[in-house]
Every structure is written in structure tokens, then in C-alpha cells.
Write a structure and sequence with these properties.
Layout (H helix, E strand, L loop, with lengths): L3 H12 L9 H15 L6 H10 L14 H12 L4 H13 L14 H12 L3 H14 L17 H6 L4 H7 L11 H25 L3
Length: 214
């Protein structure tokens, strides 16, 4: 008999088949693995961490006209079908609703360690070499320009402005990616983020050299 985690993996793989490459099953798998790596250093509920990591992007609002209610609904229906306790379901849904970078201004104080772990894992997958690849992939998906020296980053966007932003891919580094290192919650998250952050800085230096044909 398959475990709940095995069933969740199967469900997510099926649900995200054909998804945009930065938010597909492989993104989920990396976040799941990173979550387990960080969870090993914290006192936490492993089941909540793993289920949340696997279900956190089951219906990313970016691909559903900004609707943030779809993912919790899909996750609840699936977890109820797995006979997961209501207490665990509520914790998983709380993480799904509060994990996003764009929602950081609305998140309540005193976050549970499980959310901190999965949030760190999700943010770590947004930086470094993988983060660079995902960012350019999504920029291409939206047909955003790679870079425009005349367009400056918007550093204090509201949630609504962030959701509607169609800025350049390079500006996204300054609007989000380079901010993530200092938003890590856990010691392990900070450790893993530093190397990837430094890699992005090196990439940007090289990008500008090549752009300017130095």
C-alpha cells in the first residue's frame, strides 16, 4: 500500500503535467528535497513539511488569473481524500496561502516552523543557477524583454503592482531574487542561500560586460 507522500507525489506529477518549466514537477521535487534537508536541522512536523512542499504550487495564481483560492481548494480536496487529519490539513493550507513572496506584507506574526522551512526551500529554488534559468524561462513565457538600460527596477511595488509587473528579466533580480538571501528564516536556509546569491552577483557582472561588449 502506498504512503500518503507517495500518493501526493503521483497526484502533483499528474496535475502539473505540461506546466511552465519554472513551476513544473521538477520545481516541486527540488523544493521537496530542499525542505527535507532544512527540516533535518529543525524541530518540526515532517508530514506537514513534506505535504506543504509537494502541494505549495498545485495551482500557482500566476497561471490562474491571480486567483489565490484555487490551490487551497485543490489541496483540501486531495488531502481529505487521503484521510489526513483536519489539524494537518489546516497547517498545510496555511503554508500554501502564506508562502508567496508577493504576500509577505500580509503574513501574520509568529509563523510556524513548518512554513519557515518550506518558504526557505521555495525561495532557495528561486536563486542561484536554477533561479537564473527559471527567471529567464518565465520572462520568455511572458515575452518580457531581457534587459532595457532605460527601465529601472521598481523596488517598492505593492502586491497588486508586483502581480501585474511586466518589467525586464534583469530587473526581476533586483525586485525579488537578490532580496531573498536576507529573507531566509532558518540557519540552514541562510547557509544554502549565500552561495546561490553570490553566484547571481557573478552572473550579473558577466551579463553587463557582455551586454556592453566590454
Amino acid at each position: 500500500m502506498k504512503s500518503t507522500i507517495e500518493n501526493t507525489v503521483e497526484f502533483v506529477k499528474e496535475k502539473l503535467e505540461g506546466a511552465e518549466a519554472g513551476h513544473d514537477w521538477y520545481h516541486i521535487e527540488r523544493v521537496w528535497k530542499l525542505s527535507k534537508k532544512i527540516a533535518a536541522t529543525e524541530d518540526c512536523n515532517q508530514e506537514v513539511v513534506e505535504l506543504s512542499a509537494l502541494l505549495h504550487d498545485i495551482a500557482d495564481p500566476k497561471f490562474h488569473n491571480g486567483d489565490e483560492t484555487i490551490a487551497p481548494k485543490i489541496a483540501r480536496e486531495f488531502l481529505e481524500g487521503q484521510q489526513i487529519s483536519e489539524g494537518v490539513i489546516e497547517k498545510v493550507l496555511f503554508i500554501i496561502k502564506n508562502i508567496s513572496f508577493k504576500n509577505r506584507g500580509e503574513v501574520p506574526a509568529g509563523l510556524p516552523i513548518e512554513l519557515k522551512i518550506v518558504q526557505d526551500a521555495d525561495r532557495i529554488d528561486a536563486i542561484g543557477a536554477i533561479g537564473i534559468g527559471r527567471t529567464f524561462n518565465f520572462g520568455g513565457f511572458k515575452n518580457n524583454p531581457m534587459y532595457d538600460p532605460e527601465v529601472q527596477p521598481s523596488l517598492n511595488m505593492s502586491k497588486e503592482e508586483y502581480k501585474k509587473s511586466n518589467g525586464t528579466t534583469i530587473n526581476h533580480f533586483y525586485e525579488k531574487l537578490l532580496l531573498l538571501k536576507d529573507l531566509m528564516n532558518t540557519g540552514k536556509g541562510k547557509e544554502l542561500a549565500q552561495e546561490r546569491h553570490d553566484y547571481m552577483l557573478g552572473f550579473l557582472d558577466q551579463f553587463y560586460k557582455e551586454w556592453n561588449v566590454d
